[in-house]
């Protein structure tokens, strides 16, 4: 197999996927059978600067280059050959946010990520004007908030994009987005029958221009947004300048075809084979979100639900929660530190597995304990900022098993609120929910609790082990497969996921009842979290060489 893999690598019969996630930039190389051949990654962290979450663009390229270099080392170690090129390439990244450039290609304001919730006024006004939910993190909300705030840079904006769109632009010179990522900038007109020609909603484009004019800014939003491409379509080739950015050693040469860049939600759908109606997936890491492919329009607008699309352009209801497993990760880190203090040398993955397994024996309703995992604001529960919080009633028994179950439940609680709207209010039905991400790596724990939270069977499997980086590599392979007449769903079913083994978990009635009881206390005590936001400051401050004061949060993906 190593020989075959080596021949595929040297022959360029591969696809490379790069995904810029919240805590890690990852590169995955796949072969003709779509199996991963090599992996490379680089950790990075967001910074809280001037009350906004951001990453520097220098860190983008440092991380990308380190990931590609690590992948090349992995190719050499595993297969005994050099990485001399790839057959196709794709880029994915965190969706949404705000990257604004002037006509010279200069960034006008630091990258504002999906995590920011300073856009409340804009999101509320646009939601009312458009008649659809416009989340805080969407690019159009960031732009309109900048207009409302009178920010000087707005008049010089020439081009808006997402992080994936930015990287793709630098690699190819093409200002284009995959339709799934584009749907997080401005709503897509999904009424158009031909998915390949679907674009931004024309009525909303025109209304935004009017709102901007009312605020004293003349612009044409349609001219600022990237072009849109659906999965399977070509989206440019690696340029000489792009190749130097990606790999300064020159291993990757110009001319490699690229697929449309996509957001991490879209690549998660691909990585879990969840692009057909009545399928869905939950991704849990720094944030946690559910994507459910719809078979009909929703009856009305809900602030808990975002309407986006699959990479093929089909409508999706998204429940996006800013806060996922980072606070849980912090508690596990505390226990690992305690073990080291005792002189116990223990691997971090073993600590996770031990503590997660303990949660299975905890009280089904968490025994009077509550936790809020809010490191940042959480729009679904109406909080502009977050304060991690653990509390319990005086008569609750403080045991390790129930403590861990409480924090695992807390990681899923806000998602449950949004899924209740989708499942109970809208009556959306699911045939399959797939779970992936760091939270689900310990077998049979978070999967079981998610099944209880949404009262739906949940599947996990090794297919999504390499996550969105593998998903965008698959999309790159699809774009160069010569299968333009095949649907993405058909390609995944018949070519990529044939013979895939899954582990399925049915909801346990005792767990379901326990999670329901936990949620009643969770919702009732939300004013306590609100009080913590109102009365507890932002925490650790540091000053850099320029005199800028910032709060820094370092996050690690759960093992």
Essential attributes:
559 residues, alpha+beta, Nucleotidyltransferase, domain 5, 18 helices, 38% helix, globular, disordered C terminus
What is the topology?
Layout: H1 2-10, E1 15-20, E2 24-30, E3 36-43, E4 47-49, E5 52-54, H2 57-79, E6 88-93, E7 99-101, H3 120-130, H4 139-148, E8 159-161, H5 163-172, E9 176-178, H6 179-182, H7 202-214, H8 221-224, E10 227-229, H9 240-246, E11 262-263, H10 264-271, E12 279-284, E13 288-293, E14 306-309, E15 315-321, H11 326-341, H12 348-359, E16 369-372, E17 389-392, H13 400-425, E18 432-436, H14 446-454, E19 458-460, H15 467-479, H16 488-496, E20 503-505, H17 509-524, H18 526-535, E21 542-543, E22 549-552
Parallel strand pairs: 1-6, 6-11, 9-10, 12-18, 18-19
Antiparallel strand pairs: 1-2, 2-3, 4-5, 4-22, 7-8, 12-13, 13-15, 14-15, 16-17, 19-20, 21-22
Helix pairs in contact: 3-4, 10-15, 11-12, 12-13, 13-14, 13-17, 14-17
Biased composition (Polar residues): 540-552
Domain Carbohydrate kinase FGGY N-terminal: 15-243
Domain Carbohydrate kinase FGGY C-terminal: 281-479
């Amino acid at each position: 197999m190593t020989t075959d893999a080596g021949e595929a690598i040297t022959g360029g019969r591969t696809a490379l996927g790069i995904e810029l996630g919240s805590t890690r930039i990852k590169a995955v190389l796949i072969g003709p059978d779509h199996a991963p051949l090599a992996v490379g990654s680089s950790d990075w962290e967001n910074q809280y600067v001037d009350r906004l979450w951001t990453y520097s663009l220098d860190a983008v390229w440092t991380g990308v280059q380190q990931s590609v270099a690590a992948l090349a080392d992995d190719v050499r170690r595993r297969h005994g050959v050099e990485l001399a090129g790839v057959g196709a390439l794709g880029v994915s990244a965190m969706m949404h946010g705000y990257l604004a450039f002037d006509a010279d290609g200069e960034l006008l304001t630091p990258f504002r990520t999906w995590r920011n919730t300073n856009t409340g006024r804009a999101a509320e006004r646009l939601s009312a004007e458009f008649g659809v939910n416009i989340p805080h993190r969407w690019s159009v909300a960031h732009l309109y908030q900048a207009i409302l705030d009178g920010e000087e840079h707005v008049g010089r904006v020439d081009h808006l994009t997402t992080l994936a769109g930015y990287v793709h632009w630098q690699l190819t010179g093409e200002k284009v987005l995959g339709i799934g990522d584009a749907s997080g900038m401005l709503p897509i007109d999904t009424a158009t029958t031909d998915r390949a020609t679907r674009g931004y909603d024309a009525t909303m484009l025109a209304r935004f221009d009017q709102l901007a004019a009312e605020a004293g800014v003349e612009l044409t939003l349609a001219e600022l947004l990237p072009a849109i491409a659906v999965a399977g379509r070509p989206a440019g080739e690696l340029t000489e300048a792009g190749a130097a950015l990606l790999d300064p050693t020159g291993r990757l040469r110009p001319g490699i075809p690229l697929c449309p860049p996509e957001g991490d939600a879209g690549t998660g759908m691909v990585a879990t084979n969840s692009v057909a109606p009545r399928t869905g997936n939950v991704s849990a890491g720094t944030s946690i979100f559910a994507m459910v492919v719809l078979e009909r329009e929703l009856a009305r607008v809900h602030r808990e639900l975002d309407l986006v699309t699959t990479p093929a352009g089909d409508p999706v209801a998204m429940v996006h929660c800013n806060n996922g497993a980072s606070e849980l990760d912090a508690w596990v880190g505390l226990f690992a530190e305690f073990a080291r203090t005792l002189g116990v040398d223990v691997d971090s993955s073993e600590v996770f597995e031990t503590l997660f397994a303990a949660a299975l024996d905890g009280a089904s309703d968490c025994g009077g304990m509550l936790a809020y995992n809010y490191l940042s604001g959480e729009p679904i529960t109406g909080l502009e900022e977050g304060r991690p919080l653990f509390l319990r009633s005086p008569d609750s028994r403080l045991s390790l098993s129930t403590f861990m179950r409480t924090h695992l439940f807390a990681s899923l609680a806000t998602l449950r609120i949004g899924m209740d709207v989708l499942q109970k209010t809208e009556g959306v039905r699911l045939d399959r929910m797939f779970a992936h991400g760091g939270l689900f790596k310990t077998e049979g724990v978070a999967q079981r609790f998610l099944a209880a939270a949404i009262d739906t069977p949940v599947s996990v499997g090794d297919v999504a082990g390499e996550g969105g980086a593998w998903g965008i590599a698959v999309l790159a392979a699809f774009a160069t497969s010569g299968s333009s007449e095949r649907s993405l769903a058909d390609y995944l079913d018949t070519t990529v996921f044939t013979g895939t083994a899954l582990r399925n978990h049915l909801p346990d009635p005792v767990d379901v009842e326990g999670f329901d009881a936990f949620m009643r206390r969770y919702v009732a005590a939300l004013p306590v979290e609100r009080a913590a936001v109102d009365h507890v400051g932002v925490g650790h401050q540091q000053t850099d060489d320029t005199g800028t004061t910032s709060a820094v949060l370092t996050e690690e993906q759960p093992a």
